[in-house]
Amino acid sequence: MPNRTWNIVDKFFSENEFQSFIVQNAVSIKRTEEIEAGKKVIYRCSKYRKYPECDFQVKVIFSYDGGITVSTSNEHNHAHRASTTRAPSPVREIVINSVAAGLSYIQTHRAIEHQYEGVVSRSQLCSLLNYHRSLKLPDLNFVDDFFLLYKIMFFF
Questions:
Q1: All domains of the chain in start order, with CATH
Q2: Which residues, other chains included, contact 52 with Cβ-Cβ below 8 Å and sequence gap of 6+?
Q3: Share of the chain above pLDDT 70, in %
Q4: Strands of 27-35's sheet, edge to edge?
């Protein structure tokens, strides 16, 4: 991988000016390290998860004399958004109805196959089922609540 090319943008002497630059460029801290001249902080695009091709970075050197040197590398590239890992809305509705009906994983999977045309991963389905099943469980605040629930589930 070739070395990154840094272009010196500005030198700030005020923290407020620097903070407005950071907000304006929509970046967040990636890495911080101590160097001989002071402290070096690397910022990256704050939307790097949504847009994985965005390679915009800002290098800031906080020198001991109070100066703040700012350099940038590349530009924002928000042309291609990353695909989401969230299950589609129809699948979530099917899972909610399946949990309400008390269906198993296999039964829920078959319901999704019949009612939804797309593909849903096993991990998405398991996560959705576990989440919605946990919403149906009563809150257990004390050990006595647990034993009461245990008696109800297994002895009545």
A1: 7-73 (2.20.25), 89-155 (no CATH)
A2: 80, 82
A3: 88
A4: 7-12, 68-73, 57-63, 38-45, 27-35
Token pair, residue 94, equals 């099917």
Q: Which residues of 118-127 are buried (b: 16+ CB within 10 A; e: fewer)?
A: eebeeebbee
Q: Any idea what DSSP says for residue 37?
A: T
Q: Where is 134: in which H helix or E strand?
A: helix 122-136
Residue type, 50: K
Q: Which two tokens stand for residue 135?
A: 């919403």
User: Contact 73/56 with Cβ under 8 angstroms?
Assistant: yes
Tokens of 11: 């030198």
Sign of the Cα torsion 124, 127, 131, 134 reads: positive
Q: What is the pLDDT of residues 12-71, one digit of tens each?
A: 988 899 999 999 999 999 999 999 989 999 999 999 988 989 999 999 999 988 899 999
